[in-house]
């Protein structure tokens, strides 16, 4: 794994090519992930999400629009993350390859799935900060 100053990590030397880039804003952390998410690569996804949550952002957006394959291990990570952050504080931007398993498993009723990053970051849909 290699990381640079912009919080971008490249896991391409691992068993699956996964790329994660973290950007922080006032009201949200945006984790952009690309590559294939399966049992072999899910530890890198979990690690990237843990890093994104370190500062307890009001909203975490996991942008999976560049993910080419998304297995059940990835679904599990999203569910665990949803439980950890609480309702309304996680949004998932889904590629068709990610949206399909979410819809087939019925997790679209649990996860807040968005079509694009702009929708995920829409101000009128941001959670209230206590």
UniProtKB/TrEMBL annotation:
Classify the source by domain of life: Bacteria
Q: Name one GO molecular function term.
A: anti-sigma factor antagonist activity
Which residues span the membrane? none
Instruction: Name the family the entry cites.
Output: Belongs to the anti-sigma-factor antagonist family.
Database matches in InterPro entries: Anti-sigma_ant, STAS_dom, STAS_dom_sf
- What is the name of this protein? Anti-sigma factor antagonist
| Gene3D superfamilies the record matches | STAS domain
The taxonomic lineage of its organism, from the top, reads: Bacteria, Bacillati, Actinomycetota, Actinomycetes, Mycobacteriales
Which part of the chain is the STAS domain? 18-124
- Pfam families according to UniProt: STAS
């Amino acid at each position: 794994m290699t990381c640079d100053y912009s919080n971008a990590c490249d896991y391409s030397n691992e068993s699956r090519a996964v790329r994660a880039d973290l950007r922080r804003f006032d009201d949200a952390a945006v984790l952009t992930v690309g590559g294939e998410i399966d049992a072999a690569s899910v530890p890198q996804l979990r690690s990237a999400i843990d890093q994104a949550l370190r500062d307890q952002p009001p909203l975490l957006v996991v942008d999976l629009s560049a993910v080419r394959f998304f297995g059940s291990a990835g679904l599990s990570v999203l569910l665990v993350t949803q439980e950890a952050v609480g309702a309304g504080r996680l949004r998932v931007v889904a590629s068709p390859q990610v949206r399909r398993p979410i819809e087939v498993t019925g997790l679209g009723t649990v996860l807040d799935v968005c079509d694009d990053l702009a929708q995920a970051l829409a101000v009128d849909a941001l959670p209230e900060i206590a």
